């Protein structure tokens, strides 16, 4: 940690259910980052992520329908997933980094984000 946490950006994390948002936030906070879990996938307001959190950096975590269903043991239909994707589309378009988490471990996702944050500083 070269930079004191108070000078670090506010990081917003959005994505599909089961994509790893909470796990990523826990990892980033261990490194002194301030994060905001944005439940954009549950909101009809497309720009909610901008209104509520006003993050300096927006991270989008993607998980496919089969993976998110398996990870969270969700009892939902593919139509529900598609609606969630629609609700996330604005945030995805504005994300600074998009990570497909289907084939990554939580540690790999954290390292990708840490590397991105270091290069963006």
Task: List key phrases describing it.
121 residues; alpha/beta; 4-stranded parallel beta sheet; 5 helices; 4 strands; 46% helix
Topology of this structure?
Layout lengths: L9 E6 L5 H10 L3 E4 L10 H6 L3 E6 L2 H8 L5 H17 L2 E4 L5 H15 L1
Parallel strand pairs: 1-2, 1-3, 3-4
Could you explain how this protein is built, in words?
The protein has 121 residues and is of the alpha/beta class. It has one domain (15-120). Helices cover 46% and strands 17% of the residues. The protein contains 5 helices and 4 strands. It has helices spanning 21-30, 48-53, 65-72, 78-94, 106-120, and strands at residues 10-15, 34-37, 57-62, 97-100. The protein has a 4-stranded parallel beta sheet with strand order 2-1-3-4, with helices on both faces. Strand 1 (10-15), helix 1 and strand 2 (34-37) form a beta-alpha-beta unit. Helix 1 packs across helix 5. The chain starts with 9 loop residues before the first strand and ends with a helix. 30% of the residues are buried.
Overall geometric form:
globular
Assign a percent range to the helix content. Answer: 40-55%
| Overall pLDDT level | 88
Please trace the helix and strand order, writing H or E for each element.
EHEHEHHEH
Radius of gyration of CA atoms, rounded to a whole number: 14 Å
Summed up, the domain count is 1
Report the span from N to C terminus. 12 Å
Poorly predicted sequence stretches spanning 5 or more consecutive residues:
none
Number of strands: 4
User: Sheet with the most strands?
Assistant: 4 strands, parallel
Summed up, the helix count is 5
Oligomer: single chain
Fraction of residues in β-strands: 15-25%
Helix/strand/pairing category: alpha/beta
**In what order do the strands lie side by side in the largest sheet?**
2-1-3-4
